[in-house]
């Protein structure tokens, strides 16, 4: 506004044109002023944008210090590998090929150990196989005579590049050897093509594999020794975190419906955010798959063996998503406008809350099983409790209202609505019935989740808590710890 | 079996050991035979595996010829770029840097045009910016004296590599410039490091940028001219295909529940597979995002402008997923064991089927809108019909059974179940009520989908069918085409 006012105060010169229009002659000062203001606006906007960017980056760094450490590790690896160039004796050994070590570090160094190892092995194998093949073909070609060389080379590059590119579309190759296939094409083309010029082909190939091995070894060492980020552990954390979120969401959604949010001490916004935790479960499929893919390349670390059943985590994730779909539907249905009569709602609230809390207890116990990596001694008991609560809920529903079929409305839809005193339309309790039905469905799906986690416990050879106790003292026959004996 | 028999007929020599156990001395022939059989088994297994692999690859190629064509394009691009090496005049111009053209082609050539352009521009910009910066720093360093060079270079590599690696974690950078950032680090390190040795730095950098531009230009040309695969078009096809699947699944699931599958002529397996079409919607999030990301780099093609609102497709995809969650929950709930009394089921079947068919008609109309890229003149009418059907369903539910609250069970759960003649327990009709409730929820979510598609129509400046008709003949006021006037 201030800018406009300023402009209007400036005297304006106008030229009247032949066609009746007029053109303003902006005074020099005005133009300069306008340009200055525009420039100032532009610069301010740019500065603001840059500031915003850095603020975001700063927040990211504060929230996830792991990422900052990874960046420093990359910088370190690159600086170390640069030494090959600066140290003359090493340089003379490697020749110009030291460039390949730098390139390897840049391309191969990934966020997680698994990804780095996967790319490293892919790079080494791809280079080695393609190099050998290319040199072999080069040798055969050199026997047959110089004049055919370009043709044979061209055809072999065309055929192999097409075939290997195609193999990258095959899921089993794509999952594990995608990068290796690309490196294969790259190396084969380079060697085949430069074989025409470079005489010391074998030496060059040798040097190149050598530098690549140095680069990858450096990457793997740095990524594994300095504050390692394991893909397996990330996957494991993601799954257990999502399990907690799922349990909280389930509890929260049902609680909220019955107006017993239970977390009055916390901020409402925080609570609402937590209720939507199940959405994280819905969106983490891609991350889970990537992590599981990299985790299988990792050596034994922490509590995980080399052949830890990472694939099973994907099954667990899928089971969790199946639950989350139902919670999403539940969230939509219970928020509809139909108001359930207070009396019925109150009558059902206890048992519905019991089902949801028993269900989320099962999920929490599963999360605990995963966190401690010990077979739970109470999971069967808790699943039983959950199923009992479901049965109780069904019984309650059975005993609550008997429904009299009024034969008249079955004939046609134009029958006038008859309201008896004390009668409740089915319509009115629909959200409640839906909630109950979805709760039962969720309980069924949780059993699938329980199975998935139990399979993991079998595969991963988790010890049971009872086994550990056995070594110290005899346990009671029921296997139910004391805290559960008195009931909830 | 035959193998075992054969083995048992051979005479066996045994040595009795000191500890009482005996060790068989297998005759030479037996050993050779066994080894031969083992080898045969191994080879057969390997052959079988390889055959399997090729069969899979063949199926993939037959199902998606686009991928085969892409592979041939890659082979062609590589063969063409190899010419730089073989043609002596070109080679002399480029020097050994022609290698960079080969490398560029291998790394940059992607399946879709968008991805190729994205990587190409990233590569060019990353190389150019990093090269300029590195040369600038090199010049400053060279002024300050040789002895500090390694230190300054090392520090600058460390700092820049760390910072740029960090920037790759920032979502907005990661989405668009991830590859460019990597190339920046690569180029900067290479130039900074080799600047210490190579004297003709500027010329080398110049040549490198030059060859990279040649490589990328070749890739972009080949990918755009020969049977182009546009990321935008792939995204568009994916979304419309998923919409059809969603409509079919919704129709099918509800139809199946009421035992009116409607597709008796088709194979049951085929039909069941189609019913699960909504699962494709659930799993296509990652693909949608990747495609939308690449589509924005593509120039105008086919019916899409340069600034086609690709982001809106993600919103449409999200809306579809919201519907699919409900269908998944519905699929679970209606398959529960509770049998709804035939009488009630039959009574509700007509109207429930109507709601589902009206809903799926809306989805199909949206799919048609997207396919024809013309604003639908009937969508408002269809949404109205859907909402009417929902209202009718609710009315039916209201009028059907009046529910008498039995005050007794409200006191305690131990009350014995009382069954009046002709009474139906709420429990028994629960699946039906849930189905109805979820259908209503799905209808609500479909409205969200309608809004998303309408926004797209606005943004993409779709013409309306009415506009086109206006140019030929006056339309009726209601805007409802004849086929809809008589009702369904």
Characterise this structure.
2 copies of one chain form a homodimer. Chain A is mostly helical and 488 residues long. The first copy, chain A, folds into 2 domains: 62-225; 231-261 and 269-299 and 306-481, Methane Monooxygenase Hydroxylase, Chain G, domain 1. The first copy, chain A, is built from 20 helices and 6 strands. Chain A has helices at residues 2-9, 28-63, 65-86, 88-94, 98-108, 113-144, 149-167, 171-194, 201-225, 231-257, 268-275, 278-283, 285-295, 310-334, 342-372, 379-399, 407-411, 426-459, 465-472, 482-485; strands at residues 13-16, 22-25, 374-375, 401-405, 423-425, 463-464. Chain A has a two-stranded antiparallel ribbon with strand order 1-2. In chain A, strand 1 and strand 2 (22-25) form a beta hairpin. The longest helix of chain A has 36 residues, at 28-63. Strand 4 of chain A pairs antiparallel with strand 5 of chain B, so a sheet runs across the interface.
Order of helices and strands of chain A: HEEHHHHHHHHHHHHHHEHEHEHEHH
Order of strands across the widest beta sheet of chain A? 1-2
What count of domains describes the coordinates of chain A? Answer: 2
Q: State the major sheet of chain A.
A: 2 strands, antiparallel
What does the oligomeric state look like here?
homodimer
Overall 3D form of chain A: extended
| Number of strand elements of chain A | 6
Q: How far apart lie the N and C ends of chain A?
A: 67 Å
Judged by helices, strands and strand pairing, the structural class of chain A is mainly alpha
- Give the helix level of chain A as a range of percent: over 70%
What are the low-pLDDT stretches of chain A, counting only 5+ consecutive residues below 50?
1-12, 260-266, 402-422, 474-488
Average residue pLDDT of chain A:
78
What count of helical segments of chain A does DSSP give? 20
CATH class of the largest domain in chain A: Mainly Alpha
């Amino acid at each position: 506004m201030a800018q406009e006012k300023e402009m209007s105060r400036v005297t304006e010169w106008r030229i009247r044109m032949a066609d009746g229009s007029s053109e303003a002659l902006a005074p020099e000062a005005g133009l300069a002023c306008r340009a200055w203001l525009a420039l100032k606006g532009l610069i301010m906007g740019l500065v603001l944008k840059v500031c915003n960017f850095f603020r975001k980056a700063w927040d990211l760094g504060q929230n996830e210090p792991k990422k900052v450490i990874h960046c420093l590790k990359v910088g370190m690896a690159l600086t170390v590998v640069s030494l090959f160039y600066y140290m003359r004796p090493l340089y003379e050994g490697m020749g110009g090929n030291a460039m390949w070590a730098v390139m390897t570090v840049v391309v191969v160094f990934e966020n997680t150990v698994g990804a780095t190892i996967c790319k490293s092995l892919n790079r080494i194998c791809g280079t080695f196989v393609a190099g050998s093949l290319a040199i072999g073909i080069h040798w055969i070609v050199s026997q047959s005579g110089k004049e055919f060389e370009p043709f044979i080379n061209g055809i072999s590059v065309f055929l192999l590049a097409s075939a290997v590119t195609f193999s990258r579309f095959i899921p089993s190759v794509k999952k594990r050897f995608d990068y290796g296939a690309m490196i294969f094409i790259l190396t084969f083309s380079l060697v085949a093509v430069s074989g025409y010029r470079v005489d010391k082909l074998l030496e060059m190939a040798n040097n190149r594999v050598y530098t690549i091995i140095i680069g990858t070894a450096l990457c793997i060492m740095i990524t594994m020794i300095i504050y390692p980020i394991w893909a397996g552990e990330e996957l494991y954390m993601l799954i257990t975190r999502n399990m907690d979120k799922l349990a909280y969401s389930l509890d929260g959604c049902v609680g909220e419906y019955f107006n017993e949010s239970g977390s009055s001490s916390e901020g409402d916004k925080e609570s609402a955010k937590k209720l939507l935790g199940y959405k994280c479960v819905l969106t983490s499929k891609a991350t889970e798959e990537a992590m599981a893919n990299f985790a299988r390349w990792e050596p034994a670390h922490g509590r995980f063996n080399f052949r830890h059943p990472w694939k099973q985590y994907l099954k667990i994730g899928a089971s969790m998503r199946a639950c989350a779909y139902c919670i999403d539907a539940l969230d939509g249905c219970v928020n509809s406008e139909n108001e359930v009569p207070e009396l019925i709602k109150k009558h059902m609230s206890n048992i519905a809350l019991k089902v949801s809390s028993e269900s989320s207890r099962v999920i929490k116990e599963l999360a605990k099983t995963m966190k401690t990596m010990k077979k739970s001694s109470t999971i069967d008991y808790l699943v039983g409790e959950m199923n009992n609560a479901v049965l109780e809920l069904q019984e309650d529903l059975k005993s609550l209202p008997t429904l009299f079929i009024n034969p008249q409305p079955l004939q046609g839809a134009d029958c006038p609505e008859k309201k008896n005193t004390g009668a409740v339309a089915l319509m009115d309790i629909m959200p409640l019935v839906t909630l109950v039905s979805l709760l039962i469905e969720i309980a069924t799906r949780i059993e699938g989740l329980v199975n998935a986690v139990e399979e993991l416990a079998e595969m991963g050879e988790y010890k049971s808590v009872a086994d550990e106790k056995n070594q110290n003292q005899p346990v009671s026959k029921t296997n139910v710890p004391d805290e559960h004996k008195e009931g909830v």
